[in-house]
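RECORD TYPE: inverse folding
INPUT: structure tokens
STRUCTURE:
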């Protein structure tokens, strides 16, 4: 999601831009108070400083009300003011050109890639025009190349770092939302696969858990087209999945494509198998893959897979604990009913029918209270009891002659 979609984010953008405008005005005006070249046209440098201070006031007063498009225009105006300082800076023009770096840093951090590139291209064009108008600038091409090269490198670095940080923040937000927003733990596998698929931009993501007999693994959740899942049918993919589960370490899935038609620059990485660990032991595997092999695996893909696998481990543990709690509740309800009915049976056999009926009523009341307590407990947890959740793992032996 692009930055600047909320009033709070636009306020941050406006304040940051106001800071840059204010800093630029302060530094440029200070150069006029310090000893400077006689070739510097003081009025030509002072006017951009005054205009910049006016922009600062507007940005502070209207913070949060300016849209991203308006802020892009204001940043472009900043490029014009910097270029004016360079144009009238005389022998010190190269010092003013350093402020172009601020344009790159701001645009690369806050704007989309296309908008940031447009800002840098505009700055490069204006700087080239200014150097062309300055007849006394030695080796103008060198000045332009080094200046714009520095601006471009700084912009690319900030853009890459910003993209990685925001992607990681988005992964954390997605995991937190899944952890707090799902009432049915059985749905967590599908949500985990969908979240990882979106984060890694994979074609398919699957979650595998061991079979009850331990003889292999089965797919318990999937995100992506079923056709894309065929990439896991290859021998290298199956070996990677088994190795991830056996060793508890992530395994790269390599492609099986070979032969004369392959180019030496073609990719060989098909996907990644990330084990789901509990207490240091693998309890499942979270695997992602692309239909078109890649030359390598981005670091953030591995980080995202580890993050979602860790949350899946928590979900599996929560599901097991919930299952045990519900089984204990079922046993308590069953045992209370059985005990009450046994008492009622003996009372009836002894001929005390009234006491037997009273015992049955009391038993039904206790059972009703126990079930109500369980429903309230589940409701407070944001979930609901599904059919069979309060079933005993074994039937009661009461009334069974073989087990009496």
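DESIGNED SEQUENCE:
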């Amino acid at each position: 999601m692009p930055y600047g979609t909320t009033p709070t984010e636009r306020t941050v953008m406006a304040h940051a831009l106001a800071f840059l405008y204010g800093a630029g005005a302060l530094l440029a005006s200070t150069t006029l108070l310090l000893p400077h070249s006689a070739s510097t046209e003081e009025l030509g440098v002072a006017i951009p400083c005054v205009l910049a201070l006016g922009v600062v006031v507007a940005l502070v007063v209207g913070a949060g009300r300016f849209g991203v498009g308006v802020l892009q225009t204001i940043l472009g105006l900043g490029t014009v003011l910097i270029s004016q300082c360079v144009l009238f800076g005389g022998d010190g023009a190269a010092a003013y050109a350093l402020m172009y770096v601020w344009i790159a840093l701001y645009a690369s951090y806050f704007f989309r890639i296309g908008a940031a590139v447009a800002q840098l291209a505009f700055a490069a064009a204006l700087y080239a025009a200014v150097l062309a108008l300055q007849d006394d600038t030695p080796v103008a091409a060198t000045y332009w190349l080094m200046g714009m090269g520095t601006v471009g490198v700084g912009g690319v670095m900030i853009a890459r770092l910003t993209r990685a940080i925001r992607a990681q923040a988005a992964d954390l937000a997605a995991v937190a939302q899944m952890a707090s927003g799902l009432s049915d733990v059985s749905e967590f596998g599908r949500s985990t696969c969908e979240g990882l698929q979106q984060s890694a931009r994979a074609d398919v993501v699957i979650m595998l858990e061991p079979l009850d007999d331990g003889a292999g693994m089965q797919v318990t959740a999937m995100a992506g087209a079923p056709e894309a899942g065929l990439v896991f049918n290859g021998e290298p993919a199956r070996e990677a999945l088994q190795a991830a589960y056996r060793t508890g370490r992530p395994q790269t899935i390599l492609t099986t494509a070979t032969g004369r038609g392959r180019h030496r620059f073609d990719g060989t990485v098909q996907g990644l198998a990330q084990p789901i660990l509990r207490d240091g032991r693998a309890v499942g595997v979270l695997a992602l893959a692309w239909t078109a092999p890649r030359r390598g695996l981005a670091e953030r893909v591995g980080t995202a897979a580890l993050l979602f696998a860790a949350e899946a481990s928590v979900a599996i543990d929560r599901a097991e604990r919930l299952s045990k709690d519900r089984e204990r509740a079922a046993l308590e309800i069953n045992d209370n009913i059985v005990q009450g009915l046994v008492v009622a049976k003996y009372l009836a056999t002894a001929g005390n029918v009234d006491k037997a009926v009273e015992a049955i009523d009391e038993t039904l009341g206790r059972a009703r209270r126990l079930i109500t307590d369980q429903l309230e407990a589940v409701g407070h947890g944001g979930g609901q009891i599904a059919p069979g959740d309060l079933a005993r793992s074994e039937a009661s032996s009461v009334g069974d002659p073989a087990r009496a």
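NOTES: The beta strands are 204-210, 217-224, 251-254, 269-278, 281-294.
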